[in-house]
């Protein structure tokens, strides 16, 4: 299915590293073309020939048939009217409430809740989903089997030098130690270990097909006596002995995206000796409220007067739950954002700190706890409908923030980044830190920008407080949703005013 494919393309394209400046350059092109036609006043039928592209067959596969459950009268020129029983072609689902659909050559928004999928199509889709791997290992390890990601990672000097520095500054203590390099990729960290220290053994574990080349690289650099490359998933490989040090570069965008951290924790529990060392030893997620004037101008203010025309219905649309521009550009976080230190409205705040020794896989999950309150006369059984079920989230990755703004400006959103710390083998204190924030050398992760739907003018002395929740997707194990809740307390009003907001950002499912 095209939409799902687009989502997966997003996923592989955003595996830690981002190749496209805009998340939406890969938005379904069919939708974009249809929308262009809509703007030009042509109907789909009239413009069939305009639509023909070499990708047409693939694009047509994206269209899904839905049946109208009841009559609907569209309000405004961008909504479709339909009658119960009509078959609509849904081209895109820009939000959960409003879909972009076609009926008899006309195209427009329709309310999703008025439609149901054709039963056969729904069953086929469900089956397709059931067959999919929730870890998406094929795409994931497929992309690490190519050079593109490795080139980007190795070209990131700050990142790679940080690992080199860790090995170098601990070289004496690494003597005769056994090391596992989890997810060794091209083997760079294992090679640093072998060349800069004298470990007795380095197990370089890599699940992707890159492992075959890594073996050659180890040999080419004369390290085969120390480094053993093992191809396989870290969760499944067997080592001949436990290790003194587990080193891994597992961090993704916004620290956790990809959830490679789970593989690290599983390997830690299986193979790290009692008292062994984890590199990184801890990880911190940092947040700051910020301005993003140029991004806002590029994606939102642009529609105010392009070529002297008024395109504001794309920006502000009373009929839409979320106008198109907001929906397309601000629904997901912007990866690869480089925030200017000047755009931070105040001092950043650490919202999450992970201790790599004590963190558990279950800590990464949202645990749904069901509380059944028994109706006094009914037997104690979970299936009794007379019982009341209360469901609440007992645990999720959650951090609090409280910012006191140091300057006036426009609050466009929050920017997040992470820092990891490596402790010394000897002293246990921190030796090296890799900081991906705006005051350090840019890394390939850059920063992650979460745009609010609407900018808010703020003033020095105002405060912004709230929390951030990272909810791992319970099906798609490498994805999560970041939810921000905030309240802005104004210091300038005679009577205190508070504005509250909340927004969830899927990354990507
Ligand atoms: C971010 S890259 C780091 C590569 C290399 N360590 C470096 O610093 O250049 C992560 C690597 O870990 C591998 N990987 C991820 N999860 C893994 C797992 N569960 N078992 C083995 N390898 C894994 C990926 O295929 C990828 O090559």
Automatic annotation (TrEMBL):
Sequence ranges assigned to domain SH3 in this UniProt record: 61-120
Signal peptide location: none
A Pfam family that the UniProt record links to this protein: Methyltransf_25
Top-level taxon: Eukaryota
UniProt record, GO biological process: methylation
Top-tier EC class: transferase
Protein name: type I protein arginine methyltransferase
Molecular function in Gene Ontology: histone methyltransferase activity; protein-arginine omega-N asymmetric methyltransferase activity
Any one of the GO CC terms: nucleus
This enzyme's EC code(s): 2.1.1.319
UniProt keyword terms in alphabetical order: Methyltransferase, S-adenosyl-L-methionine, SH3 domain, Transferase
PANTHER family in the record: PROTEIN ARGININE N-METHYLTRANSFERASE, PROTEIN ARGININE N-METHYLTRANSFERASE 2
């Amino acid at each position: 299915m095209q939409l799902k494919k687009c989502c997966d393309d997003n996923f592989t394209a955003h595996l830690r590293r981002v190749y496209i400046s805009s998340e939406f350059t890969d938005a379904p092109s069919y939708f974009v073309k249809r929308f262009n036609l809509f703007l030009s006043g042509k109907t789909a039928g009239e413009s069939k020939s305009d639509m023909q592209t070499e990708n047409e067959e693939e694009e047509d596969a994206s269209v899904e048939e839905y049946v109208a459950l009841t009559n609907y009268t569209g309000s405004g020129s961008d909504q479709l009217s339909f009658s119960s029983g009509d078959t609509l072609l849904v081209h895109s689902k820009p939000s959960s409430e409003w879909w972009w659909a076609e009926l008899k050559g006309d195209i427009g928004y329709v309310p999703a809740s008025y439609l149901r999928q054709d039963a056969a199509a729904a069953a086929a889709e469900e089956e397709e989903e059931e067959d999919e791997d929730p870890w998406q290992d094929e795409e994931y390890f497929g992309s690490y089997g190519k050079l593109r990601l490795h080139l980007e990672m190795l070209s990131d000097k700050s990142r790679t030098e940080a690992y080199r520095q860790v090995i170098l500054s601990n070289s004496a203590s690494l003597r005769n130690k056994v090391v596992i390099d989890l997810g060794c990729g091209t083997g760079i960290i294992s090679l640093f270990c072998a060349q800069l220290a004298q470990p007795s053994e380095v197990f370089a574990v890599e699940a992707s097909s890159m492992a075959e080349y890594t073996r050659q690289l180890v040999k080419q650099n004369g390290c085969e006596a120390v480094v053993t490359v093992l191809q396989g998933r870290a969760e499944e490989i067997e080592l001949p002995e436990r290790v003194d040090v587990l080193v891994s570069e597992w961090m993704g965008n916004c620290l956790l995206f990809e959830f490679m951290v789970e593989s690290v924790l599983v390997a830690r529990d299986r193979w790290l000796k009692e008292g062994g060392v984890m590199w990184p030893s801890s990880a911190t997620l940092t947040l700051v409220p910020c301005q993003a004037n140029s991004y806002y101008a590029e994606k939102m203010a642009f529609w105010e007067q392009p070529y002297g025309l008024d395109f504001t219905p794309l920006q502000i649309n009373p009929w839409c739950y979320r106008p198109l521009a907001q929906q397309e550009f601000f629904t997901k976080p912007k990866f690869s954002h480089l925030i200017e230190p000047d755009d931070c409205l105040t001092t950043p705040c650490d919202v999450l700190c992970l201790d790599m020794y004590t963190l558990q896989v279950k800590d990464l999950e949202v645990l749904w706890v069901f509380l059944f309150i028994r109706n006094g006369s009914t037997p104690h059984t979970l299936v009794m409908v007379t019982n009341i079920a209360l469901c609440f989230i007992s645990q999720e990755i959650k951090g609090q923030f409280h910012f006191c703004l140091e300057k006036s400006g426009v609050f466009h959103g929050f920017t997040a980044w992470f820092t990891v710390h490596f402790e010394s083998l000897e002293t246990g204190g921190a030796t090296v830190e890799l900081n991906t924030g705006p005051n350090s050398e840019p890394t390939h992760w850059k920063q992650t920008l979460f745009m609010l739907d609407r900018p808010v003018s703020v003033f020095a002395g105002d405060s912004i407080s709230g929390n951030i929740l990272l909810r791992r997707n319970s099906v798609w194990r490498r994805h999560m949703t970041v939810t921000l809740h905030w309240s802005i307390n104004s210091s300038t009003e005679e009577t205190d005013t508070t504005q509250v907001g909340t927004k969830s950002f899927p990354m990507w499912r």
